[in-house]
Amino acid sequence: MPAHSLDLPAASRHFLTARLTAGLCAALLAPIAAAADVLVVTDGHHPVQAPAGVRVIELDQATRIELELAAHLPADPQQAAALVRQRLHDGGQALQRRIGQAYQGVADAWGLGIAKIPAVVVDRSYVVYGEPDVPRAVARIDAYRSARP
């Protein structure tokens, strides 16, 4: 039943509508806020199930990009270098971003002290190792945090 059809004074209806709207916004935005605090560290050999919006660092991404650039190079070093330069040029800013993000991810994982993969990190303070299901890992962290206020 809409708040305006309740038999309440106008001030109470306004308060109720504001509270319902705030609650709805909080419910809709909570998953986004939680996802912003979650980071997953893995590699191509350890696939994970991560919700959209969760940052996933693949530690071997930079190596895979380097292999793409080095694929089918001629034996002559000068020709090979010229071809790699051409591939870097052709890849443009998108390739440069991919390379930068790949190495930044390695640096971020190293800075967090990640010891094994896959690793699910929440709030840069809590980590679950070995769980490829990110929502399950986050639930384990939430349970741990709620048991230790």
Short description:
With 149 residues, the chain is an alpha+beta fold.
Word description of this protein:
Strand 3 and strand 4 form a beta hairpin. By secondary structure, the chain is of the alpha+beta class. The protein has 4 helices and 4 strands, in the order H-E-E-H-H-E-E-H. The protein has 2 domains: 1-36; 39-147, no CATH class. The longest helix is centred in the middle third of the chain and has 36 residues, at 77-112. The model is unreliable at 1-6, 20-29 and 32-36 (pLDDT under 50). It is elongated, with a radius of gyration of 24 Å. It starts with 9 loop residues before the first helix and ends with a helix. Helix 2 (61-70) runs antiparallel to helix 3 (77-112). 58% of the residues lie in helices and 11% in strands.
Q: N- to C-terminal separation?
A: 38 Å
C-alpha-based Rg, rounded: 24 Å
What's the number of structural domains?
2
Strand content: 5-15%
Contiguous runs where pLDDT drops below 50 for at least 5 residues = 1-6, 20-29, 32-36
Strand and helix map with partners:
Blueprint: H1 10-36, E1 38-42, E2 55-58, H2 61-70, H3 77-112, E3 119-122, E4 126-129, H4 134-147
Parallel strand pairs: 1-2
Antiparallel strand pairs: 1-3, 3-4
Helix pairs in contact: 2-3
